[in-house]
Amino acid sequence: MTDQSIFLSASKPRHDSDAATRRALDDLRRVGRLRPAELLFWGAALASFLVLPGSHLLLSQTAILGLFALSLDLIIGYAGIVSLGHGAFFGLGAYTAGIVSVRLTEEPLSGLVLGGLVAALAGALTGPLLTMRATDLSRLMVTLGIATLLHEGANQLTWLTGGADGLSGVTVAPILGLFEFDLIGTTGYGYCLIVSFVLFLAARRVVTSPYGLSLRAIRDNALRARAMGIPVAARLVGIYAFSAFIAGVAGALLTQVTMFTSLDVLGFERSADVLLVLVLGGVGYLYGGLIGAVLFTVLQDRLATLSPQYWQFWIGLILVVIVLIGRDRLAAVPVRLRAGLSGRKAAAGEGEA
């Protein structure tokens, strides 16, 4: 065998590997593009800004909840990190934005970015605790404990957070010096919508990248991923910090839109509600949190109108039905009904013939 033939035989596997890598990257880029259905979703969100001017305050809350749910889905649906205390990062962002407004500057983008960065820093510092305790139960307890500590800390630091009375005196300057926040929430909703869309694109870029594929490998089998050479701990801490950043931005948006924040943003109910949103919308699907937020807000608004005292009971019943029956089976019901109606029409046509 000549030197040239040895070189060709040795380079062929590498050439095949490079081609496979290029194909995989092309597939990822194709998956990362917005599809027509997604453009329709965001078009509907933009249309709601124009068509529903009297509901901008409610729509702002929906956008914030959807962004918060998106942040939680990144760690549960894509990395397999369960959490009962994700509201801690939401609350950190909310309080940071409020404190920045009261003590530093009323410029909204500064408070928004700082709220996200403080939450991301907290996520990076607490993330290693989750990698050391790899069981779901221990992660639940760790995240819940962190949220409880932050809640009590905010309650005790009255000179900084206002304690149980909340942080008052929050004022927000016009965005970019041009768009002033109004009482009906028009500017606030547009602000929330733009921020949510930008962060959604960032999250989409992450989950459709090789980094996102490695997270799914870790979620499915962490031991096998580690054997393949994936730095499991570093990847989990990284996505946890990124998720905390998005949650912090969502909390900052809430403070800036309402111009107030209180201990409620660090409460357990905040973390529980966002879990309910994910159950409604679906886990492991970026639009699940956004769709779930819309469904949760509509259900809460309508059921509270029909049954002010027992609306939580009906939401709980709906969640139990979804979990017991299964989302796939519920989604298949309309398809089966259409198939059944088509079959009856065909049978009736044959009978007439």
Automatic annotation (TrEMBL):
Its main location: membrane. CDD domains: TM_PBP1_LivM_like (cd06581). GO terms for molecular function: branched-chain amino acid transmembrane transporter activity. Pfam families: BPD_transp_2. It is found in: Cell membrane. Keywords: Cell membrane, Membrane, Transmembrane, Transmembrane helix. GO terms for cellular component: plasma membrane. It is a multi-pass membrane protein. The chain crosses the membrane at residues 39-69, 75-97, 109-130, 188-207, 228-254, 274-298, 310-327. PANTHER family: ABC TRANSPORTER ATP-BINDING PROTEIN, HIGH-AFFINITY BRANCHED-CHAIN AMINO ACID TRANSPORT SYSTEM PERMEASE. This is Branched-chain amino acid ABC transporter permease.
